[in-house]
Amino acid sequence: MATTNISMFLLPIVLLLIWVSPAALSCSPHEKKALLQIKQELGNPSKLSSWNASTDCCSWNGIQVECSNTKPYHVSQLELYGLDLPGPVNIPPSIFNLLDLEQLSLFEMPNLTGPIPSQITNLKKLQILYIFSTSVSGPIPDSLAQIKTLWSINLYGNNLSGTLPPSLPSLPTIHVIFLDNNRISGPIPDSYGSFASKNLVTLAMSHNLLSGKIPASLKGLDVYFLDLSWNRLEGDGSVLFGAEKSTEDIRLAGNLFSFDIGKVEFGRNISRLNLKHNRIYGKLPEGLTKLQHLTRLNVSYNQLCGPIPQGGRLQGYFPIDASSFASNKCLCGPPLPPCK
After folding, report:
1. Which domains are seen in the chain, by residue range?
2. Mean per-residue pLDDT of the chain
3. How many Å apart are CA 35 and CA 37, to the nearest integer?
4. What pLDDT is recorded for position 62?
5. Strand, helix or coil at 128?
């Protein structure tokens, strides 16, 4: 009888513990429904086999679904990559029902196609947006600037086209922008010389179809890593330099920039400088010998002339060698043949 009474006493407590288990509360029915719709919209790929209605969505494995660690629990991070999509599939619209997402990552899916939907602005808390190595196409939505929480944007290696959205620099907290390896065309807007965020460290837009004269406003751009290489940009690229700038890595190769490099003042932090395949002219400045952090330099295939400054890391510092200065109008001196 005593055993029976104790069991009857403990049973409601056990049921109560099960009822209030954090795991049972961690996934809202609304968000689980959205995730299951995403799975269906993607054609039910095998890597999402753990996604089912009978388990907690915050414990689904194989593909990353993370939830906030405080009540009310919400899906805060969704990472979908390398899925075996059955054929061309657009970005699932149900993603934009996960209103508490802080990070969205979609990558390494060649069959992911279509545009970036306008509904992305529903994600008012989004901090990190990664869509790369897919076949997503169409323009970069100008409306991205409405997501004021964005910290990092990586749209590398897609089929994006159209022009650069002029409103992107208005993002107040943006730190990193990667737009490389797409088909983005047209000029760089004047607004890219004045970012609202004072914390922008990376702006990479290489291997696109950008064209036209570089705006003078870019004189105000100061980032650690700047990559505009392999586009069709022209004009006075010297505005991107300045003794006061903190830039460490600048890549302008494969454009039509034309300016007198002898008048350029380089920031002391520069470690990598790639200016090859342009129309840059003049004499290399002595200031290059004072760059104590320089590890990479390439000014080949330009119209430079005169003796290469001696000292610093310009001679005998691998991999800065003769190939770094090759195919210019009349550069001479070590590591090239002597001046006549």
Report:
1. 29-332 (3.80.10.10)
2. 91
3. 5
4. 54
5. strand
